[in-house]
Every structure is written in structure tokens, then in C-alpha cells.
Design brief:
two-stranded antiparallel ribbon; globular; 11 helices; 9 strands; single chain
Length: 291
């Protein structure tokens, strides 16, 4: 174990050095990165602007531009917040992330109920990896490996630091079935706001003023394995400071249609985006498919 830690620190040495920098100074670098990403390289500016204008047709160009700038500032912040995860300590984590309703999760764990967090690229979704520090149960996150093996390894290192298991999405259903058979409460995280591929099973529903395709995989797994399905809502209360609230999508998904679960998820995500639009990942090409 010690050899593995040493090897990782050598391999990702530059990122470890950055993570040791105090958070206020990291945000100074984030401001510099914002100028480069937004003003100089104009990273996906057209995609972001087009997504915002079509999602909020009632907003003026000035309002759209403000959301656009606020999004890029937040986007740069979470890049450094994620790197900080490599060395941040447990005491500091509790200062930066407050859970509004921990009793909801605690009650489900006490009743030995599995939990599916139907998550999104909202707030700082990467900080859901801190949940094992707040709740005494196993946690898994399902993800699609990155093409670049170096950065894929870095992402896994960050996500697994506090005990979360990273599981490839294609192994998701088998993993859920296996965990259910173990008869112990588990928190599983699945991101649901990615754009489905053309041949993937999908459900179309109204979302941000457009018919939008959603993966149905998470909902179908929930219907078959019957965990409680929750939406984790992030609110940003300051740079590097978040509040996390868990909202119930369904506490008995086996009795619901999977499409209904998807629609409930989409509704909660839409409310979150409408409340704080700058906290969602607008640079993602969300509407590649058309109905």
C-alpha cells in the first residue's frame, strides 16, 4: 500500500504540488485560468452561448453573458477544487462541504436501504467522493474511463482517496445485483445528464425548453434493484464552499415506471439549473441528438 502511494505521488507529482497550495491562492490561479479559458482560448464559447440562449430564451443578451462568465469562473474553480482533493484533510472538508439533511441518508442506512444518487454535472459533483466521511457505508461511483490513461489514473486516484470505489459504467448492473445480495447498505452514484449515444436506450422529455434525450439505464437499474433514488443538489455559498441537499426522487422505484423516474430526475435537475444556472456544465454538448 505504501509503495503504491509513493508511486502515485511520483507519477502525479505536479498535481500533488498544486494541491498543497492554500485554497485562497488556488483561486488566484483560477482567476488567471478564467482569463485564458474564457478570453484567450475561448474554450467552447460558442457551445456554451448557444446552450444558454436556447435554454433561457426569455433572458436578455446581457443576462446570458453574465451567466456565461459566471459559469466559466465556476468551471475554473472546480478544476482547482478537484486537484485540492489530493491532499485536503478531513477537518478541512467539513468546513468546505455542509450537508443540509444528513438525517435522510442516516435513516435509510439504519433501515439497511441501498441508495442510488442520480447525480448531475452540477455544483462540484466531484466532491460527492467525500460522502464516506459523513456516512458509515460503502460508496461507489460509476464512470466512463477517459481515453487518456494518465488522466484516467489521476481521476481514479482523486475519486478513490476517501474510500469510494470507481466502477466502469458497463459493469454497473452486475455490480448493483452483487451488492444487493450482500445485504448491506451502499451509496451508489450515477451521473444522468450526459448525452446518450445514438443507439443507447433513451427517454425523451421536456428539459430547459427543449425535448431532451436522457439515458434510462440508471432508472431501469433502480426499478430492478429497488434502492431509494435521491437527487443531490449543490448550492455554492462561497468560493470552495458548498451546501449539499438530498432530494427524494423515489423511495420505491420498483413500483414506478422507469420513464417516470427519469422525468422526476429531469425536473429536479431543471429546477437546480434554473436556480443557479452558472453551476451546471454548459460546455457539454448536451443536445447532440434531436427527437
Amino acid at each position: 500500500m505504501m509503495k503504491k502511494k509513493t508511486s502515485s505521488r511520483i507519477k502525479y507529482f505536479p498535481f500533488y504540488v498544486i494541491s498543497l497550495i492554500p485554497m485562497p491562492i488556488l483561486f488566484f490561479f483560477s482567476d488567471i485560468l478564467y482569463v485564458l479559458v474564457y478570453g484567450v482560448f475561448k474554450y467552447r464559447r460558442q457551445v456554451v452561448n448557444d446552450n444558454l440562449k436556447k435554454s433561457f430564451p426569455q433572458k436578455t443578451p446581457t443576462e446570458i453573458r453574465k451567466i456565461e462568465k459566471d459559469f466559466y469562473r465556476h468551471f475554473c474553480d472546480i478544476m482547482f477544487e478537484s486537484i485540492k482533493t489530493l491532499t485536503i484533510n478531513k477537518r478541512s472538508i467539513r468546513k468546505h462541504l455542509r450537508i443540509e439533511n444528513p438525517g435522510l441518508i442516516e435513516a435509510y442506512i439504519k433501515s439497511r436501504k441501498n441508495i442510488l444518487l442520480y447525480t448531475a454535472h452540477q455544483g462540484n459533483w466531484e466532491w460527492l467522493i467525500f460522502l464516506p466521511l459523513y456516512f458509515p457505508c460503502q460508496a461507489n461511483t460509476f464512470y466512463k474511463p477517459l481515453a487518456n490513461r494518465y488522466f484516467d489514473g489521476l481521476v481514479k486516484l482523486i475519486r478513490e482517496r476517501f474510500g469510494v470505489n470507481c466502477i466502469e459504467s458497463e459493469k454497473g448492473y452486475r455490480t448493483f445485483i452483487g451488492l444487493r445480495q450482500e445485504d448491506k447498505p451502499v451509496i451508489n452514484c450515477i451521473i444522468g445528464d450526459q448525452s446518450p449515444t445514438g443507439n443507447a436506450t433513451k427517454h425523451w422529455c421536456g428539459f430547459l425548453n427543449r425535448e431532451t434525450a436522457f439515458f434510462t439505464g440508471a432508472a431501469k437499474i433502480a426499478k430492478k434493484t429497488d434502492p431509494v433514488v435521491l437527487f443531490p443538489l449543490f448550492r455554492k455559498v462561497g468560493r470552495g464552499h458548498y451546501e449539499l441537499q438530498f432530494q427524494v426522487i423515489s423511495d420505491s422505484p420498483s413500483q414506478r415506471k422507469s420513464d417516470e423516474i427519469v422525468e422526476q430526475y429531469a425536473a429536479k435537475l431543471e429546477n437546480a439549473v434554473t436556480e443557479s444556472p452558472e453551476l451546471w456544465l454548459w460546455s457539454h454538448r448536451r443536445w447532440k441528438l434531436s427527437s
